[in-house]
Amino acid sequence: MKKNLQAFVVSLFSICLFSYTTFSQDMKFEGTHPPHPDVLKLLEREGAIMDNVTNVKERDSLRKEIISDGWFYHGIDGLPISLDGLTKRQTKNQFQSLEAKIISETLYQYETTAIFVSVFWQKNMDKGELRENYRSNLIVMGLENGVWKMQADIIGQNPKIKKD
Q1: Quick one: average pLDDT of 28-50?
Q2: Helices (H) and strands (E) in the chain, counts
Q3: Which domain holds residue 38?
Q4: Tens of pLDDT along 117-137?
Q5: Cβ-count burial of 141 within 10 angstroms (0-12 exposed, 13-18 middle, 19+ buried)?
Q6: Is 163 a member of any domain?
Q7: ∠ CA(95), CA(97), CA(103), 5° rounding?
Q8: Which residue among 57, 126, 141, 152 is buried most deeply as judged by most CB within 10 Å?
Q9: How many separate domains does the chain show?
């Protein structure tokens, strides 16, 4: 029963996390512990915000409740910035996420740390330019005073994608 419930939650989470994706593979799980339900809820909340809120300032104000005080974003420019810095930069650049498709996603669950790694295709508007590319992303989450919080959001180098 417990395994069936866990499989159902995982399946539901995979559908809900990135609802705008249509070609997402099943999420893989690694690490030393099974996926913590609160980590899955945290990722689901982040996915709902990113899917449904296009205004950068509104999006990031909603994210404040799920991120750590020490959270940082590390972009492809190699420089970490705070949530306020990210909000200001993306607002100035008129950033808009237009479409995305998940290629792969893996959750590494440990006792008090969880790491979510995804590879995806994205289409966005940034600095007035329409861009389409593949990206990799790593989100670090940690247990803080009994509550799971996002601690870092790191954009990686463009992944090598095998094309059929």
Answers
A1: 95
A2: 4, 7
A3: 2-155
A4: 999 999 999 999 999 989 999
A5: buried
A6: no
A7: 140
A8: 141
A9: 1
Tokens read off for 15: 């559908």
List the beta bridge partners of residue 101: 121
Of the candidates 34, 11, 36, 15, the residue with the CA atom closest to the CA atom of residue 24: 15
Q: The domain that contains 97 carries what CATH number?
A: 3.10.450.50
Please tell me the pTM assigned to this model. Answer: 0.77
Nearby residues of 15 by Cβ (< 8 Å), 6 or more positions away:
none
Handedness of CA 31, 7, 16, 142 (dihedral sign): negative
Q: What is the pLDDT of residues 66-89, one digit of tens each?
A: 999 999 999 877 778 899 989 999
Residue with tokens 């809900």: 16
